[in-house]
Amino acid sequence: MKVAEAESFAEAGRQLHMSPPAVTRIVSALEDVIGARLLTRTTRSVKLTEAGARYLADCQRLLADLSEVEAAAAGAYGKPTGTLTVTTSAMFGTMFVLPLMSEYLDLHPDVTGRGLFVDRVVNMVDEGIDVAIRIGHLPDSGLTATRVGKVRRVICGSPSYFEKHGVPMTPDDLSDHRIVASTSAWTSLEWRFGVQKKSTIRVTPRLFCSTNEAAIAAAAGGWGLTRVLSYQIAPQLEAGELRTILSDYEEEALPIHVVHPEGRHVSAKVRSFIDFAVARLRSNRHFN
Description:
Arc Repressor Mutant, subunit A, D-Maltodextrin-Binding Protein, domain 2, about 25% strand
């Protein structure tokens, strides 16, 4: 490589602290092993042959790959430092990711955390995101994703509501009930049902709320029925404030993934947080 860059055995020898004859012998031995002439020698200069140019390019690529592997290994086993930026949806972030980040930061005092909890799809590269936790089926992309669990879309109401208004037995029965709907991102008035045999019911809400938290509160207060993701009402289900209905008609569960854009070039802070988050989320009973 040095001979090709300097176009001289003598100059390459000076840079490598070797004699020109020693450099010449090494290049000749390499050509004998490969079975092709790599350099054309003249009295004034040394030039790469076509085969030599291809060989040099391949060697440069292999050396670059080796450097990347070494850097990746150093990142995986180095000390986590710097700012770690994690994004996910608003309720999921508050309920599950914020406690994860707090515990992680206690373990790694040289890391500063930044949580971006918003109900929109964030462009990880453009917005400088290290890790995203996403619910739903992922589009094809260059991101690396690790599945950690699943959640369901569920319809729920309070025991007091069902005592007063009865329990819907099929999706068609929802037309006889008061519906509370959220107007936040990713909500729809077209409620889909079924895994094998699919159907869609268009609901007509009597009450619209700007957040899922408000719609859940209205349902827990006995005003009507709402549809949310199962994790969003986990506390109310455990407290007996809400119960789910029409479970036999539910859609296929939605996967949860921990996503990052770095591929094999993973810094210590990202790798350690991913390992930490994946273990915690997979052990959470709400996502099994």
